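Hi support team,

I've been running sequence recovery on a batch of backbones for a student project. Most finish fine, but this one hangs at about 90% for roughly twenty minutes before it completes. I'm not sure whether the input is malformed or the queue is just slow. I've pasted the structure tokens below so you can try to reproduce it. Let me know if you need the job ID as well.

Thanks,
M.K.
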């Protein structure tokens, strides 16, 4: 392998992946601390105040009538989490255009593993809960928490080869896409066709503006939030779906093409180099003007979708997801007994779906696809596949979110959370041990 080819591999795959994993590692740590804080508050003397806080209602009054009047908990799950799904949509679009999902032929193994890793847990849960009021929770054990799983991979460092990291990252991305589809198709309330039509019209406006070459992110923000998201929220279709659709409508091509940007950048640098230094700390007006043009060209050379993804990802990782965890991960163990936990098969269904179904689906699909002729990277040994399968059973964030959509009954919701906690902790520990 030539040094030039190695350099291209490092710059195109290794470095971006390392940066992504480092970011997810930090997000996973903050998310874990938020879960611990929620559990501590729920089991402290301030437990009542903690739960009551998220019941406060926020909304607007229009001619004395309440408008968008929801609890704080509802605003977090439908509002803040829409930002999370918006970033997920931007990441998915980037992956489809020029990332891991651009050519499915090269990613058949993790895509097949992701699909099987969603179907088997759903089947296990359904087998235990079919025909009961808890049957609707089948989507809960389908999801993988990318922040927690990649945080563990990062802690393991060089013990996990690049091929295994790419496999898990691609699997988690496809898993996110599957969760979005499941929410859209199966976890919606009664639909208001009028509001849905308004939302679709605003979405069509965003797509038309994209085709016409509009690159202004403020325009897309106003139409996306004030139009698409609000209309979908009122239509009965979960507002997070609007966030994903809006993300796909954001332009993924830059105002300034790469070749033109390089020419302008070289010209700006020549202009700046040709200016005589003034000998003081401040710059001359001509120097400031050149730097301002370089800054504007740099902004125009980045596609709006990637600009938004880059700008929003830290806020989503370090604010939105921790707040979601604080609002949803609080489980009070006071007075909890076995009869309450096992009054239905929700907790066993979720726990077994994640802890057994995820690894089983992933491992069997990889073995089947390999037998059918799909190439398996050299570093992806069977032991590592099993270990990654257990890491994929960490389903905290998305599983917790789907559980809030699946159940309105407080007991079933509690049982689902306990199943998620048990499977995620055990899956993370087993996966870490196998990969180490």
């Amino acid at each position: 392998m030539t040094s030039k080819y190695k350099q291209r591999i490092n710059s195109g795959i290794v470095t971006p992946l390392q940066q992504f994993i480092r970011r997810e590692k930090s997000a996973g740590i903050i998310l874990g601390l938020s879960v611990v804080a929620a559990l501590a508050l729920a089991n402290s003397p301030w437990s009542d105040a903690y739960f009551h806080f998220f019941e406060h209602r926020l909304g607007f009054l229009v001619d004395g009538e309440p408008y968008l009047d929801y609890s704080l908990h509802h605003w977090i799950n439908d509002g803040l989490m829409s930002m999370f799904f918006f970033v997920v949509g931007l990441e998915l679009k980037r992956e489809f255009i020029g990332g891991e999902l651009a050519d499915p032929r090269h990613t058949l193994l993790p895509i097949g593993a992701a699909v099987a890793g969603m179907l088997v847990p759903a089947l296990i849960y359904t087998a235990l809960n079919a025909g009961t009021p808890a049957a609707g929770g089948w989507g809960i054990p389908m999801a993988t928490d990318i922040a927690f799983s990649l945080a563990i991979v990062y802690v393991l460092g060089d013990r996990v080869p690049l091929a295994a990291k790419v496999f898990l990252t691609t699997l988690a991305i496809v898993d996110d896409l599957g969760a979005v589809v499941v929410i859209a198709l199966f976890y919606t309330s009664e639909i208001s066709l009028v509001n849905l039509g308004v939302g679709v019209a605003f979405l069509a406006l965003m797509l038309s503006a994209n085709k016409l070459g509009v690159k202004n992110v403020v325009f897309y923000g106003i139409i996306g939030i004030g139009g698409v998201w609000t209309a979908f929220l009122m239509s009965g279709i979960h507002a997070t779906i609007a966030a994903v659709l809006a993300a796909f409508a954001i332009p993924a091509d830059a105002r300034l093409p790469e070749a033109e940007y390089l020419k302008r950048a070289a010209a700006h640098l020549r202009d700046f180099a040709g200016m005589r230094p003034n000998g003081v700390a401040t710059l001359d007006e001509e120097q400031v003007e050149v730097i301002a043009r370089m800054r504007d060209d740099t902004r125009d050379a980045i596609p709006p979708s990637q600009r938004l993804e880059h700008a929003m990802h830290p806020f989503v990782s370090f604010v939105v997801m921790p707040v979601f965890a604080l609002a949803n991960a609080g489980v009070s163990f006071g007075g909890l007994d076995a009869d309450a936990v096992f009054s239905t098969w929700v907790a066993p269904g979720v726990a077994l779906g994640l802890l057994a179904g995820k690894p089983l689906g992933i491992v069997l699909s990889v073995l089947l696809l390999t037998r059918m002729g799909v190439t398996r990277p050299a570093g992806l040994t069977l032991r590592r596949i099993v270990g990654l399968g257990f890491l994929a059973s960490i389903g905290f964030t998305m599983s917790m979110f789907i559980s809030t959509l699946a159940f309105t009954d407080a007991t079933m919701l509690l049982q689902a959370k306990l199943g998620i906690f048990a499977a995620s902790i055990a899956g993370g520990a087993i996966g870490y041990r196998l990969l180490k």
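--
Follow-up from support: It reproduced on our side and the slowdown came from queue contention, not your input. Strands lie at 57-62, 65-71. No action needed from you.
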